[in-house]
Every structure is written in C-alpha cells, then in structure tokens.
Design brief:
The complex is a heterotrimer. Chain A is an alpha/beta fold. Chain A contains twelve helices and twelve strands. In chain A, 45% of the residues are buried. Chain B is built from twelve helices and no strands. Chain B is flat and about 85 Å long. In chain C, helix 4 packs antiparallel against helix 5 and helix 5 crosses helix 7. The longest helix of chain C has 37 residues. Classes of the chains: A alpha/beta, B mainly alpha, C mainly alpha. Chains A and B meet through helix 2 and helix 4 of A and helix 8 and helix 9 of B.
Chain lengths: 352, 309, 311
C-alpha cells in the first residue's frame, strides 16, 4: 500500500470580480498516493484549473480567496503557509507543467538558465557548473537531442513539442514528488501529444513521481490515469479508478462526457451527443444539483437539494441522487453502454 | 547585420535628400528675404547683397548650388551675423545642447522607469495611483510652461537654482528637468503597462511555480522583457529632447544650437536654417538607426530584415 | 467524504420522480452577458481619473462657449488698467494691453479646442481614407501608400512643421494644416490593420458580392469595427495638437494677435513672469488641465476597450 502524498479536504476557492463573488471551487476533496496519476476532467469553467493551481497556491490573492478547506501535502497543511514558506515547496516538492509551452518560457532567457535557476534555488550547495551538468542531463532525459548545444539556445529556437519537453525538464529539475500537469498536451499536435504522454509515463515509472493530470480529453485520461475525478461547476461529481469511470459510470454528467467523445474505433454507428446548455453561473450557484438543468434524468429533488457523495464501491463515489435507494433505476444510456462494451472488448483483446 | 546597416544608410540618405530639398523649396516660397526685414537697405545695396548670396539666380541654379554645398557640408556664412560661419556656430553651440540633452535623457529614462516599475509593482494601491498621477501630470504640462513655473517658484522665489544662463552644472538642472519631465511621464506609463502585461504572462507564473521569490522574479524575468518597448521609445525620445531644447534654451537663455535654430527662423537666416536642419536631421535619423540595432541586440527574437543572425 | 446511504431524512417519493432538464432555465442560469458597449461604459465609469477628465472637459467646453458670449468685456477690449493683479473686477487680472485675462482665457479655449478638434477630425478623415484604401487595395498600391506614410512619419516632424509655418505666415488655417500633416499616419496604420483583419472575412465578401461599393464597406463595416481604436486615437490626438499649437505659439509661430490662443498668452506671460506672474499661471493652468483631461479620458477609453481585460 503506497503512502498517501496529498489529501485535499473540502477545498473552497472564491474570486472577487466586479460582477460579484464567483465560487470557483465549492468543496472539493480527493486523495493522491505516491507514484499514481490522478486525472481531473471537466469542461472549461468546471474549476479544474483553479483546483490544480490552488494546490501550489498560485492563485493571485486578490482576487482569489481561500474560503475554506485544507490541502495536506505529506501531512502538512499548505493553506496557512506564507509566501516565503510556499516558495520552498514550489518547484522543489511540487512542480507544475503548463499548457502552452510558447508562453510558459521566458523568451529572452536562455533555456539552460531557466532550468539551472530551479536547481540553484532549491539546492544551495550546488555549484553553477554542477547545475549546468544536471540541466544537460535533464534535457537528455526528456528526449532533446544535442543537449549541450540546446542548453544555450532561446525558446523560440525550439519547436512546440521540444518546448514542452523543456518545460517538463524544468519541472523535474528539483526532483519534485508531485507533478501537476495542466492540460500539457492541449496546445500540441496529436502526434506530439502521444510522445509527451509516453515521456511522462516513463518518467513516472523511473522516479515514482505522482502526477495530477488536468484535461478535458477523455482519450488522454484513458491513456495515463490510474484514478479519475470528474468535475462540474466547481465540485467533483464522480470519483474512482479508470476502470470505474469508463466501465461503470454513474453520474449523468460523466455519461454526457463519454457520449460526446468522438469514438473512432467503435464500429457502432452513433450520433455524437452533446450536452445541451452551458455551465451555471457560479456567482449565484443553483440551489440543488448544479447539473440538474442540463440533466435529462433530473429528478424533482435535484432542483431542491444538493446530493451528497454516494458510495458505489470502495474506490468509486458519485454525487447524484440517482444513487439514493429511493431513486428509480436509470440504466446507462444505450449509446454509452455500447461504447463501454466496445472498450471491454478492446481491453480483453489487449489483455488489460 | 552589415547588409542591414547599409540598407538603412541608404534610406537615411534618401530621407535626408527629401528633407534638404523640402527645406530648400520652402525657403524659396517664404515671403521676404533676410535683408528686407530689419534694416532699410537702399535698393542697390539690397540687389548687391542678393547677388552676392546668389539669391537672384533662377531657382534651379540655386538648388544645384545648394545641393553641392550641402554635400560638402559647406553651409556658408550666416546671413544675419556677417562673418560667422554656420559650421562654427553649430560647432560652438552643439556641445552645450548635447550636454543638456544627455542630462535630460538620463533623467527621463531613470525617473520614468523608476516610477513605472513602482506603479506596476503596487498595482491598484496607493503608490500606483500616486506614480500614475505624477506621470499623467508630467505629460500634460507642456515643457515650456513647466520651465516658466520652475523659474518662478524654484529660482526666483526660493532662490534654489539660477534663473537663467549657462555657467556651470547648476545652470543645467532646471532646463534639463523642464525638458525631461513630460518624457519621464510617458516612459513611466509605458513601463507600467509593459510591466503589468509581463506580470500576468505565463512565464512569470511559471517562475513563481518554480519557487522563485517575488522580487527575484521581477528583476530577473519581468523587468527585462518589460523594458523592451521602452527601448523602442528611445528614438522619439531623442527627437523630443531636440525639439524641447528649442524653447527651453530660449527661456533659460542657454547658448545652445536650439536657440540659434529658433533665432535663425525668426530672422529668416536661410543658411543657418539649412545647415541646422541638415545637422539635426542627420542626428535624428542616426538615433533611430542606433535604437533599432540596439533593440535587435537586446531581444534575441528579432531578426533584422536583410540581416543574417 | 462519503455519506452513509441510510443516514437521511426520508424524502417523499415524489421527490424521486424524473422531471428532466430545464433548458430555458439553463439559459437564465448562465451568466448574463452584457452588451459590448454597455460593458465598456461600465468599466470606463469605474476609472475615477477618466471621469474627472470628462467633468473637466465638459466644464471647459461650456465655459469656452458661454463666457465670451456673456462676459462684460470682449477679449480685445482694452480697459486702461495694465497688468492688474486678479481682483473682483478682473478675476484673472489684466495683461499689458489692459485686456481682461479671464475672458481671454476662455476665448483662447475656443481657439485651442477648435484647433485641436479640427486637427483630430482631419487626421481621422485622411487616416481612415488612406488606411482603408491602402488595406482594401492591397498589393503594390498598399505598399506604396504605406511607404509614403513611413517616410512621412520618419521625417523629423517638428522641424518641417516649424519651417512650414515660417513659410505660410502664421494664422489659423496654416496652423491647422501644419498640425494635420503627419498626424494622420497613426490613424491610417490602425485603420489599415483593422481592414486587413476583416478583409477576408465572409461577411465582407458577401457584401461585395451583393454589389456593395468601397465607400459602403468603409462606412458600414470597417469603421464600426475599428471604432474603439479610432476613438482612442482621436482622443489622444487632441491634446497633442493643443500642445503643439501652444508650443508653436510660444515660438512666435502661432495665431497672431489680438487673437488669444493659450500658447500666445503663455508666451507673453512668461516674459512678464517677475512682475505679473498671473499672466502665465492662468493660461498655463488651463492648457495643462485640458491636456490632462483629454489624456485621462483617452487612457480610460483605451483601458475600457481592452479586450484582455474583459471578463
């Protein structure tokens, strides 16, 4: 049983805007163990980026406000830490990989220096030359050819995929225990995407790093995640292992997500189902279940009271009244079920 | 790089040619002659003077002579002040203007960047409002008015500085300030908005995510990128300091090139006007060229057109 | 984190009847989006400096219109009291020809505002035409037109303006011409940029197929889209023109006496600084205040229109 690395309990984050106070994260809880990958999935505005940024306390405060909850990293609550104390954690124990490698790198600073900067900041006894050596090794590790030459180059001299590798190298520079990857492949070509994902899985195996992977792409989730948290309107609505989510989804939103994913491999002719409507206004969050207004299976109670997290199994939880014993049996919609059958067949074929 | 410089030099020559020609024709069109304004010359003497200066030749002859003179930097003698060669006048007065100009530029850049950085780092708090208001005020009060006010309050009433003249370093402070303040204001605004823009960019966020401290991030990352637009302002700054000098030297009775230029215009002293115009144009055009080269050196992303990196 | 499924108040079975989604409600739930211009105005009005600027401009304009109309003195009337300090009779004092400075300041306001606005409007017209034609035409014509604009803006502007004014005998019209000569380049560049970005968009092509001529395109499509940038540029051109006008007047190249422009008044005032400082102060105050106000409003507009700050 591996050690629990991160425990987030009932995290609440608000934003002060000129239109009012936006409740971006409304009571999010999850765990992360050493060496595993947790994927956080959701559409834009679901709060997934805010959640991941908030773990490292990167939310600018103002306008952000930590309105409640705790973030326990190795047992230590990060929320009350000062900036100075957080600076020792960032880069060192928790590192972040950003979405757009084009803008995440300082355009006027040589790439090598951007890596050694991290090493030198968190390892006071390391000399400049040693740091340079380590940086070059890192560039090599992430698959950049001719690392000594590349060390002295500027970001604009790299291609998109190469830049993202550099970003990963920077993230790994101080040997962090947790990597937060915020949509790291969204800005890249599909072929490069695959390479980057492979790279990340590789590194994880080698150094037993834990990864939180933010994405809106379920295909990526299937590829890299051990466990998944589905977020909607600032809350986690379903939470479980990859198998739980893909083979036995219980929340109507998760059904919607699975249904809206273009499935190239399944032979079944099906329509691409979209979830009609748009996410709710988080300045005035709705009274009951936030997804009710877009949920074709919504019940009267969904409009009155927010559902609690129901337990489906030891590893699987979903926040929907459909799991209440009094609720009617709502089977997984056909189209989704067919997909799931397709996955099962595929998995059996792959010997998973 | 060499190719680029040569190309730019070519453009400079074309621009100079246009300026010189435009100046010539404008002078031709100008009513009155340098001799008609003040003293009443008997017509024969006036005719003689005109002949001496070739002012009675047809315009194309004058033009040809003028072009030749310009290319050989022979700007002749001042028409107003007999016996004073234009080149001498320029050589004498330019160093003074240069000193004043450099002082003014240092003040504008230093003060401007300082105010801008402070405003950006304390965004939407008191120091920001204070610095921004100072900047806008600086931009709004024309330099000559500022000069008058400073003369009145600081020099005349409080006796902190000499009112006018040019007899030592002390004499340069008020005039340099008068020229510099509005540019400092503009640079402050530019720096502030540039810093704010850079501060909200991803790489700054990334630096924070690496655990880099707030001030270290500012000095090692944000500032350098934020100052790039300020470098591009150096060209207009030079031009502004030059034109500022015209009036300021008048107000503070400083014997610089600006003062001579203005006087020569009022006097319709053609030779001096031409000479000074060409001189100024060369300086300004080269200033822009230097700034462009400087910018390409500082920003590794810039590849000058026609240059190989 | 989890709840024991049994630990509930019993809900009535009706609560668990499926009622489906509420799509029309869902639209209401989504954040109300405010119209573009309303949002701009909202943001603008939160900028205290900009609001202050507008108030100043309104006051100055009103005074400029009404004071010379209703004042007991005309701006050229010589009262026989020379260089008098401000008093109940003459609020801003009198100058060396015995003229009331208060009324002259507001007369000067008319001139300066007129010059500034006219110059800005001329810049607008030339700039929009030049930029639109250049952008729409594309190819060689575009190239040539932009080269000309580049050269014009590279030439040390003030030198040429000064010389021009020497040639053209100072006056109101020459002043305006001199001010407009290179100011339009900026506007042209902005408009051209806007044109290039929408030129190939479908609705433009559609409009063209329907037979819309160039003029129609400019007025109906290009200007509205570039309106924000155009407004900001105009608002910031005016103070620049006022500044340049006072600068040139100061050099003796301004509108001739007895017309009172703020620049000429400041110039004369500076000469009498030690004996009658109010002659400099009042025009100086209003030049600065007006330029400040225009700058504040222009900046406020620019910030309010900035797409990056939206949402």
């Amino acid at each position: 049983m591996s050690k629990k690395l991160l425990e987030v309990n009932d995290l609440k984050i608000n934003f002060k805007t000129y239109a009012g106070i936006v409740q971006a994260v409304r009571g999010v809880s999850f765990d992360l163990y050493e060496g595993e990958t947790l994927a956080i999935v959701g559409e834009s505005g679901s709060g997934k980026s805010v959640t991941s940024n908030s773990i490292m306390k990167l939310i600018p405060q103002p306008p952000g406000i930590y309105a409640g909850g705790e973030i326990l990293f190795n047992g230590r609550d990060l929320v009350p830490l000062s900036e100075k104390e957080m600076a020792k954690v960032r880069g060192n124990e928790i590192a972040m990989i950003f979405q757009d490698p084009m803008t995440a790198l300082n355009p006027t600073m040589r790439v090598g220096r951007q890596i050694t900067e991290v090493i030198l900041k968190h390892n006071k006894h390391v000399s400049g030359a040693e740091a340079k050596e380590r940086a070059i090794k890192l560039l090599d590790l992430v698959g950049i050819p001719m690392p000594e030459k590349r060390f002295r180059q500027y970001p604009h001299e790299f291609s998109g995929g190469m830049r993202q590798r550099v970003v990963i190298a920077i993230a790994l520079a101080a040997d962090p225990k947790l990597l937060i990857a915020d949509e790291p492949t969204t800005a890249l070509d599909v072929t490069i995407q695959a390479q980057i994902l492979e790279l990340m899985k590789d590194i994880q195996k080698k150094s037993n790093t834990s990864i939180i992977f933010i994405t809106h792409d379920l295909g990526v989730v299937a590829n890299v995640a051990d466990r998944v948290a589905v977020m909607y309107a600032g809350q986690i609505v379903e939470y479980g292992t990859v198998n739980d989510i893909f083979y036995n989804p219980r929340h109507p939103y998760t059904w919607g997500l699975l249904g809206s994913m273009p499935d190239l491999k399944n032979d079944v002719k099906e329509e691409l189902r979209t979830i009609p409507g748009s996410p709710p206004d988080l300045i005035h969050p709705p009274k009951g279940d936030a997804f009710a207004a877009r949920n074709e299976f919504a019940m009267a109670i969904d409009y009155e009271q927010e559902p609690p997290m129901f337990k489906v199994s030891d590893t699987h939880y979903a926040k929907t009244w459909l799991l209440h014993p009094d609720a009617p049996e709502v089977p997984i919609p056909d189209a989704i079920q067919q997909r799931i059958n397709g996955y099962i067949k595929e998995a059996q074929g792959n010997g998973k | 790089m060499i190719k680029y410089i040569l190309k730019r030099l070519g453009y400079i020559l074309i621009a100079l040619y246009l300026i010189v020609t435009a100046t010539f024709f404008l002078m031709q069109l100008a009513p009155g002659s340098p001799f008609a304004s003040e003293r009443d010359f008997p017509p024969q003497i006036e005719a003689q003077l005109n002949a001496k200066y070739g002012l009675d030749n047809p315009w194309y002859v004058q033009y040809k002579d003028y072009l030749i003179d310009t290319v050989t930097f022979d700007f002749g003698e001042s028409m107003k002040y007999k016996g004073r060669s234009t080149n001498d006048m320029i050589a004498e007065s330019f160093p003074i203007s240069l000193t004043l100009g450099i002082e003014a530029m240092i003040i504008s850049i230093g003060l401007g960047i300082l105010l801008g950085v402070i405003a950006a780092l304390y965004h939407n708090k008191f120091p920001d409002y204070l610095a921004s208001t100072i900047a806008v005020l600086g931009i709004s009060v024309p330099s000559f008015i500022l000069a008058g006010l400073m003369q009145y309050f600081l020099a005349f009433k409080l006796g902190l500085f000499p009112v006018s003249g040019w007899k030592g370093f002390n004499y340069s402070i008020l005039p340099a300030l008068a020229i510099a303040i509005s540019h400092a204001g503009f640079i402050a605004k530019l720096t502030r908005s540039s810093m704010l823009e850079q501060s909200s960019s991803d790489y700054v966020k990334m630096a924070r995510a690496k655990g880099i401290g707030k001030w270290t991030t500012v000095f090692k990352h944000t500032l350098r990128n934020a100052l790039l637009p300020v470098v591009t302002y150096l060209g207009p700054l030079t031009a502004g300091v030059v034109t500022g000098s015209f009036i300021i030297e008048q107000i503070f009775a400083i014997p610089g090139l600006g003062k001579h230029f203005v006087t020569s215009i009022t006097n319709r002293d053609y030779t001096v006007i031409m000479g000074t115009t060409v001189f100024y144009s060369i300086i300004l055009l080269f200033a822009v060229l230097i700034v462009d080269i400087l910018y390409s050196v500082i920003d590794p992303r810039i590849k000058l057109r026609g240059a190989k990196k | 984190m989890t709840q024991n499924n049994q630990q509930f108040d019993k809900f009535s079975p009706d609560m668990f009847k499926i009622v489906g989604n509420r799509q029309d409600e869902s639209e209401k739930l989504a954040a109300k989006s405010v119209s573009f211009w309303k949002e701009v105005i909202l943001r603008f009005s939160q900028n205290k400096l900009a609001i202050f600027g507008i108030i100043v401009l309104v006051i100055v304009t009103l005074m400029a219109i009404f004071v010379p109309m209703f004042s007991q003195y005309s701006y050229r009337e010589q009262l026989g009291i020379y260089n008098a300090a401000p008093s109940a009779a003459n609020w801003f004092g009198t100058d060396d020809l015995g003229r009331d400075i208060f009324v002259r300041v507001w007369q000067g306001a008319r001139i300066s505002l007129f010059i500034g606005i006219t110059a800005a409007v001329i810049d607008l017209i030339i700039g929009v035409l030049w930029g639109s034609i250049s952008g729409l035409a594309g190819g060689r014509l575009d190239n040539i037109m932009m080269r000309i604009a580049d050269i014009l803006s590279a030439v040390p502007y003030l030198l040429v303006v000064i010389i021009l004014l020497v040639v053209l005998e100072p006056g109101l019209l020459p002043m305006i011409i001199a001010l407009s000569i290179t100011g339009w380049v900026n506007m042209a560049r902005i408009v051209r940029g806007e044109v290039l970005s929408i030129k190939n968009q479908e609705y433009v092509l559609a409009a063209r197929t329907l037979g819309a001529n160039t003029w129609h395109l400019i007025i109906r499509h290009i200007v509205p889209n570039a309106l924000g940038a155009i407004l900001v540029t105009m608002t910031l051109t005016i103070p620049s023109a006022i500044f340049t006008e006072s600068f040139l007047s100061y050099l003796g190249l301004g509108v001739p006496a007895p017309t009172a422009s703020w620049g000429t008044m400041a110039s004369e005032g500076n000469k009498a600084l030690t004996s009658a400082p109010w002659r400099l102060f009042f025009p100086a105050l209003f030049i600065s205040l007006t330029i400040f106000a225009f700058n504040a409003v222009g900046d406020g507009l620019r910030d309010a229109l900035d797409p990056k700050l939206r949402k």
